[in-house]
Design a protein that fits this description.
The complex is a heterodimer of chains A (about 120) and B (about 700). With about 120 residues, chain A is of the alpha/beta class. Helix content of chain A is about 45%, strand content about 30%. Chain A contains 5 helices and 5 strands. The termini of chain A are far apart. Chain B has about 700 residues and is α+β, with helices and mostly antiparallel strands. Chain B has 3 domains: about 270 residues, no CATH class; about 140 residues, Beta-Lactamase (2-Layer Sandwich); about 230 residues, PPM-type phosphatase domain (Phosphatase 2c, domain 1). Chain B contains 20 helices and 15 strands. Chain B has a 5-stranded antiparallel beta sheet with strand order 2-1-5-4-3, sandwiched between helices. A 5-stranded antiparallel beta sheet of chain B has the order 6-15-14-11-12, with helices on one face. Chain B has a 5-stranded antiparallel beta sheet with strand order 7-8-9-10-13. In chain B, a hairpin with a 2-residue loop joins strand 1 and strand 2. Chain B is elongated, with a radius of gyration of 49 Å. Classes of the chains: A alpha/beta (about 120), B alpha+beta (about 700).
């Protein structure tokens, strides 16, 4: 149950994290360190691509919550892209869409950053 | 008891046979011209033989000494031999006994009381001799092997055969062996004789009891034995003629049994003699093993590390005979002196660490242990010096358990060559013992911590159980039931329901993120807050809004909570609810079900304004026979062996299948629970699962 992977891609000042597998209490720390690295590098324009994320638990959601306030203070954000139906359902129930911008594809998220660059 | 009776009977028979034997004399046969039997009475001999056989059987049966006590047995043997010897001396001199002993009563019958007395004396003597034989048997049987019993039985058989044959085979009697008086020599005699002595020899090899003696005991036996045996044997041979007159059977019994004594004891003495040089080493080995056993016994159960080290050092010093002992324990990769004996703490701490570091390096080159006889000369430690103490010899070993180095044990002596050659072996055994004890101590402490932790969890679990709502008063027009199944002893789910005034029932169900004790404490805290708020606020939305504020202020940002808060007004049948990020509730109607999912946001995720905007309060009316089902996401997330989730669809299906009008609240919950339970059969992992059911009667 603990197959999880984080891959990172940087485009200009945007960093995209690709999450793959199961994000739960056991694997949350991997995601946490990936975000931590980005914050340390002052790369706060973050997109999380969820297309290959199969499952997310409250521990996984907690990771987002743990960083978002700090990132937003630094004029950055975490935008979600391409969540699966299941993951989207989790977001819906919890009301995550009120807190985060969720996009159907990655490109839209990148556009959003570019248009708000001013 | 039966055996005792048998023995007693046999004994009586034996005595009677013996005495009766002397009723018969040789005269009765001489008239038949049987020269062969001249001088003896066959009937007497037969009776005597039978008597002796019975006597042997009795004596063999009696357990003379309960448990093996070797020295006692040897002492009795010695005592018996001395008595026999004294007897023989007295018989040879002019005392009343001797007159009796020498009295020629064959082939005469018992004529007087003194004759009877003489006979009984002989009987007693025979008894003693046979008793000695049986004692010898017990010595032979010490550490018996598979052939021991067989060889012994053959010996006894041959012995009795020879005794029996001696009635007519005169060649068997030693004093005649050298006399060639023309009479035909029966070859059977010498053959029998040879066989008998062969088995004397074979049984004589069975002297394992020697191993149980220590050096001084061996010396004592050697001394006493070497003196006593020749003397006794000679004495017995001397008085054999006396016994002859009573009956050949008696004579040969005494003769051959004594010869066996002589053979056996001589062979034992030779055995002891050969073993004497190694006796000292054996003793020391035994002593070492005993001390080692004491060591494991006394430090095995010590629970305080300092005490353990002190005791170990103390015992080591005793075993090895060192002047002082030092022990280093490895902690976080560093070695520190933590045990010492024979030296005071200050001096031990004064020794520079390089000293030990160098020795440890040598230890690693030498397979973890080292034995130095002359510290100043030995190549291995020549470079290592410390002016503060004079070291002559040293033993050192890593304290290891399964290749893990726990520390180092050092033994020092001021003198050179202070330790024996084989001391290293025992020293390493001591180090091993200490290793085991140290490990035990470590494991014990871990277990203790776990026990404490488990106990704390148990207390928390009980506290949490007490927080769950108890049955509401029956009689109201509703039924309300809840249940929770936690993943660990404590969990993050909560549910509660309580009456607020006459007309209002509040229901809350929630899920604090996280598992275990932490989530549970948060949950308990929240419960208290909500219960305090509820009576003062009218709407579910207000209550959760305040709750959101509380969580924002007091919980960490990555801890959020989902919750549903509902208020039911009895008179109006009005059911109002809000859903803060929680799985939807289900309205079970007469026909079909309806999932209620007003928009909402989890608690603790954002500030007041945004939260209030995101949370929509809804309201429905409930009719009789209808129910509302609340749950936590542990149900959808429950997995079966194929790792499939129970999921929303299955839950919907389950709820649809319930005959809500005719089933009471408890039963409805059970049905849902059983469905989930059978789904997850075979697996053990699951999230916290909770359910609440409100039924309108």
């Amino acid at each position: 149950m603990s197959e999880f992977e984080v891959k990172r891609k940087d485009i200009d000042d945007i960093s995209i994290l690709y999450l793959k597998g199961y994000l739960d209490a056991h694997t949350a720390s991997d995601f946490e360190s990936a975000l931590d690295t980005l914050v340390c590098e002052e790369r706060v324009r973050i997109i999380v691509n969820l297309s290959e994320l199969v499952y997310i638990s409250s521990a996984g959601l907690g990771v987002f919550m743990g960083f978002i306030e700090d990132i937003r203070k630094k004029n950055g954000d975490i935008k979600m892209a391409e969540p699966s139906k299941k993951v989207m359902r989790v977001f819906e129930l919890l009301g995550f869409q009120v807190l985060y911008q969720i996009f159907e594809n990655e490109q839209e998220a990148v556009e959003k950053y570019n248009t708000s660059k001013k | 008891m039966l055996i005792m009776k048998k023995i007693k009977i046999k004994f009586v028979i034996s005595v009677l046979l013996f005495i009766t034997a002397f009723v018969f004399g040789a005269e009765s046969f001489s008239s038949y011209g049987l020269d062969f039997f001249l001088g003896i009475s066959p009937i007497r001999e037969m009776l005597l033989f039978m008597s002796i056989v019975f006597l042997y059987q009795i004596i063999v049966r009696i357990r003379w000494f309960g448990e093996i006590n070797l020295m006692r047995r040897l002492q009795f043997l010695g005592l018996g031999l001395i008595i026999i010897w004294l007897w023989t001396i007295i018989s040879g001199s002019n005392v009343f006994f001797s007159k009796v002993m020498q009295k020629e009563i064959t082939p005469i019958l018992i004529r007087s009381l003194s004759d009877l007395f003489a006979i009984i004396t002989v009987f007693c003597f025979l008894f003693l001799v046979i008793a000695m034989l049986v004692l010898l048997k017990e010595l032979i049987f010490i550490q018996q092997r598979k052939n021991t019993e067989r060889n012994y039985k053959i010996l006894i058989f041959l012995l009795f055969l020879v005794i029996f044959s001696s009635v007519w085979m005169e060649e068997l009697l030693p004093e005649r062996i050298s006399s060639w008086d023309g009479s035909p020599i029966d070859p059977l005699g010498p053959i029998l004789y040879t066989l008998l002595f062969l088995f004397f020899f074979i049984n004589g090899l069975r002297c394992k009891w020697i191993h149980y003696l220590n050096k001084s005991q061996k010396l004592l036996i050697l001394l006493v034995g070497s003196f006593l045996i020749p003397v006794i044997i000679i004495s017995i041979i001397d008085i054999t003629p006396i016994f002859q007159h009573y009956g050949r059977v008696i004579g040969s019994s005494v003769k051959f049994i004594s010869l066996f004594f002589g053979t056996y004891i001589s062979m034992s003495l030779i055995g002891i003699l050969f073993q004497l040089p190694s006796a000292g080493i054996m003793d020391r080995r035994m002593k070492d093993l005993k001390l080692l056993k004491n060591l494991s016994a006394s430090i095995g159960s010590v629970l305080d590390i300092d005490e353990l080290l002190a005791k170990s050092a103390d015992l080591t010093k005793n075993i090895i005979n060192a002047d002082f002992i030092l022990m280093e324990i490895k902690e976080n990769g560093q070695y520190h002196i933590q045990g010492w004996h024979g030296i005071n703490k200050k001096k031990a701490e004064d020794i520079p660490p390089e000293f030990f570091f160098k020795i440890r390096r040598e230890l690693e080159y030498n397979e973890n242990s080292i034995f130095i006889n002359d510290f100043s000369r030995d190549q291995r430690v020549k470079a290592i010096t410390y002016k503060g103490m004079s070291i002559g010899s040293m033993l050192a070993s890593f304290i290891t358990l399964k290749n893990e180095k726990l520390g180092v044990l050092y033994a020092f002596s001021k003198e050179k060559f202070a330790f024996m050659e084989d001391s290293l072996g025992i020293f390493c055994s001591v180090a091993d013992q200490v290793a085991v004890s140290l490990k035990n101590l470590e494991l014990f402490n871990i277990t203790l911590e776990q026990q404490v932790y488990k106990e704390e969890l148990r207390v928390a679990h009980e506290a949490q159980m007490r927080l769950l709502p108890h049955k509401l008063l029956p009689g109201k027009e509703i039924e309300i039931e809840g249940m929770t199944s936690t993943a660990n002893e404590v969990g993050g789910d909560l549910y509660d329901y309580y009456l607020v005034g006459d007309n209002r029932l509040d229901i809350v169900i929630g899920d604090v993120s996280g598992k275990g004790a932490f989530a549970a404490f948060n949950m308990a805290e929240l419960k208290g807050v909500i219960q305090a708020l509820a009576p003062h606020l009218k709407s579910p939305k207000e209550i959760l809004s305040e709750t959101n504020e509380f969580i924002r202020r007091n919980f960490k940002p990555d801890m959020f909570t989902t919750m549903i808060y509902a208020i039911y007004l009895f008179k109006e049948r009005e059911f109002r609810f809000v859903r803060a990020g929680h799985p939807p509730l289900c309205h079970l109607k007469k026909k079909g079900i309806n999932w209620l999912e007003p928009k909402g946001l989890g608690l603790g995720l954002t500030e007041k304004e945004k939260f209030n905007n995101a949370l929509a309060e809804d309201k429905i009316l409930l009719a009789a026979g209808e129910a509302v089902f609340f749950h936590t996401d542990g149900i959808e997330e429950a997995r079966n062996q194929q790792e499939e989730e129970f999921g929303e669809e299955l839950l919907t299906e389950t709820l649809k299948g319930i005959d809500v009008i005719n089933t009471d609240a408890r039963r409805i919950i059970e049905q849902v629970f059983n469905r989930v339970d059978s789904f997850i059969t075979g697996t053990s992992v699951h999230d916290d699962m909770s359910m609440v059911l409100l039924k309108i009667k």
